[in-house]
Amino acid sequence: MTVATAVATADNAHAGDSHGEHTHYTTTGLEHRKIAIWAFIGSECMLFASLISTYLVYKGRSKIGPMPHEFSCKVSNVVAQTAEGVAALGCAAGDVMKPILDIPVTSQSTFVLLMSSLAMVLALEGVENHGKPGYDRWYKGSKFWLGMTALMGATFLGYQSYEFTSFVHEGLTITTNLFGSSFFTLTGFHGAHVTVGVLWLLTLLAIDMKRGLKGRNDVLVVDICALYWHFVDVVWIAIFTLIYLIQ
Amino acid sequence: MSDQNTQAAHAHAADHKEHPTWKQYKWVAFWLTLITAVEVWVYYTPFKDSSLFAPTLLVMSAVKFTIVVAYYMHIKYDHWIFKRLFLIGLTMAGGTLMALLFLFGKLKIGG
């Protein structure tokens, strides 16, 4: 949206508050819902920092396996970087537990979440340019991209469910050790945020299907959802590096 | 009321620069994918055992974080108040994280 268009749209929106456009400005001249979402995102940074700190503080302090990056023994609880290392410490072959984190699978889910952020900005662009020439094509419209974002979010949740299930099958639950407790709490909180985001996106998609998302107020509503979604993405960027890749 | 609204609209618009285009968004996605691919590739190389492995990954992660916040969240193009609100939270979060890591001996000054 160009600045000139924004001014014109804003003036029209204010003049047309009686037509269902509800824009609420603070004394700063900024929309209060947008200020609120940024304040919320700032506070969410602190929430996830505390969860990540907890994981990092407890890292390497588990007394029993499975471990994130190391081989361990079910019986003697010895830990080593290789299977041979654990065997050399007297662990029978059948008792060796592999490192539990599955980097290839998590890399795929990370890629899906990154691409969902691209889909989200394209959905916002579709809403901002609703009705303009070139944006009437299905692949440039907000419905398609909102649907794609929700689908990719759901795919990410599918990957997470697969990961959690396989961990439980391999003997790691939230009560097994410090790694399990901090890992499931951190990634579970993130997954809950993704779930909320997917529900939010599906709600917007339903509104778009019913009456179409257009006008200044709808742009703002989608923008707020987009900010939340991108925040969930940046949190995962940090989690992927700190928890999965760095040993 | 009308004057106040018009003034607000002008202030609002004046604080917005043009958002990136489709093409730019795709380039951003390309760089994010490329950095992620490099991160994962590095994980499977002998560089994993180097002392520079963790700092390198942290830098790449920080670059990805900044790109998403600047371009996808439009913080580069939005009003300074939004930027400050986010940075206040982020700074407090980073400070808390570092403080806890020092407090519990995960990080040590001079070693």
General description of the model:
The complex is a heterodimer of chains A (247) and B (111). Chain A has 247 residues and is an all-alpha fold. Chain A has two domains: 3-61 and 101-245, Up-down Bundle (Four Helix Bundle (Hemerythrin (Met), subunit A)), CATH 1.20.120.80; 63-99, no CATH class. Chain A is built from seven helices and three strands. Chain A has a three-stranded antiparallel β-sheet. In chain A, helix 2 runs parallel beside helix 7, helix 4 packs antiparallel against helix 5 and helix 4 packs antiparallel against helix 7. Chain B has 111 residues and is mostly helical. Chain B folds into two domains: 17-78; 79-111. The chains are: A mainly alpha (247), B mainly alpha (111). At the A-B interface, helix 1, helix 2, helix 4 and helix 7 of A face helix 1, helix 2, helix 3 and helix 4 of B.
SSE string of chain B: HHHH
Q: What is the level-2 CATH architecture name of the largest domain in chain A?
A: Up-down Bundle
Helix and strand composition category of chain B: mainly alpha
Order of helices and strands of chain A: HHEEHEHHHH
Main sheet makeup of chain A: 3 strands, antiparallel
Q: What count of domains describes the coordinates of chain B? A: 2
CATH topology of the largest domain in chain A: Four Helix Bundle (Hemerythrin (Met), subunit A)
Q: How much beta of chain A, percentage-wise?
A: under 5%
Radius of gyration of chain A: 23 Å
Distance between the termini of chain A: 45 Å
Q: Topology, pairings included?
A:
The complex is a heterodimer of chains A (247) and B (111).
Chain A: H1 3-15, H2 32-58, E1 71-73, E2 79-80, H3 83-88, E3 96-97, H4 103-128, H5 142-169, H6 178-211, H7 216-245
Helix pairs in contact in A: 2-6, 2-7, 4-5, 4-7, 5-6, 6-7
Chain B: H1 2-14, H2 22-43, H3 53-72, H4 80-103
